[in-house]
Design brief:
alpha/beta; binds zinc ion; 8 strands; Lysozyme-like; eight-stranded mixed beta sheet; 2 domains; 7 helices; 273 residues
Length: 273
């Protein structure tokens, strides 16, 4: 079994996703799991990841989940370009020329006409390390898991209805009795709110810095010029505009607007020099 075996921070995972090529048929759903028998207290980075790999290989699997989340990062396991083995019927869907549907990792090759099944879709399997029958995710594990799910939803444009729990395909309680859809989506919404607050504060800090720079750090002639071409009021109105955006638009939209703010600020600076 080939695994990527890479440990990423939330920020690195975001960059990885933005550059990731998913092929002609990108995954269109997520299946969430918990590791249950691999305890969070016993998690030991690379060694634990390799233990999961060995375990799956001993069961004859040629792939595993795509992502393993723990308190120390978001770990890449099976390449998301490929179909994983993690959620039984949730792994992938194939359709035969005659309309028959097969759900699972791969159409069994002992079916005489298995070659006539075409792949329709497949899911990203995420395992959150720990046992969540008695408690929800918490601490850094929770943070990594929420960001991971949220970023995948955005990157692959996965609707909430296509975020599945393993228990929808099996009699297990996976990803843990305490993990419910209501809880998960509420937490993701909170995350969105928190991200906006952070960005809003960054905008306020940045515009304040610019204002101070113009007011104090440059010589009186430049201050006079700055007033003349209305730079201070331009910065003020940019700030107001961005705070308004922060309270009503999505993060993606804000990120684009921050890029354009940076360009505007650059041109304001150039007009002074
Ligand atoms: Zn599971």
């Amino acid at each position: 079994m080939r695994i990527l075996n890479r440990q990423l921070t939330i920020h690195e995972f975001s960059r990885y996703l933005s550059q990731k090529h998913f092929g002609k048929l990108a995954p269109d759903s997520i299946v969430l799991h918990h590791s249950c028998k691999y305890k969070l207290q016993e998690w030991n980075g690379h060694d634990s990841l390799l233990a999961i790999k060995t375990d799956l290989e001993s069961k004859g699997h040629c792939a595993g989940p795509h992502i393993v989340v723990s308190y120390d990062g978001i770990w890449l396991f099976t390449d998301m370009y490929n179909i994983g083995t993690h959620g039984e019927e949730g792994d992938a869907t194939y359709k035969h020329l005659d309309g028959r549907i097969y759900r699972g990792h791969e159409v069994p090759s002992n079916l005489h006409d298995y070659g006539n099944f075409k792949l329709q879709n497949y899911s990203i399997g995420i395992i959150v390390i720990g046992d969540y029958d008695l408690e929800t995710w918490n601490g850094e594990t929770k943070r990594n898991a929420l960001y991971c799910v949220d970023m995948l939803i955005k990157r692959l444009q996965i609707p909430y209805q296509r975020v599945y729990f393993h228990r929808e395909f099996t009699s297990k309680t996976c990803p843990g009795k305490m993990i419910t859809k209501d809880w998960l989506f509420k937490e993701i919404a909170n995350l969105e709110y928190a991200k906006k607050e952070i960005m809003k504060n960054e905008i306020i800090l940045e515009t304040n810095e610019i204002k101070e720079e113009y007011k104090i750090q440059i010589d009186p002639i430049s201050v006079e010029r700055a007033k003349n071409i209305g730079i201070l009021s331009k910065v003020d109105s940019l700030e107001k505009e961005l705070i308004a955006i922060a309270s009503m638009r999505t993060i993606d939209y804000m990120e684009r607007r921050i890029d354009s703010l940076e360009n505007k600020i650059k041109s304001l600076r150039n007009s002074l020099s």
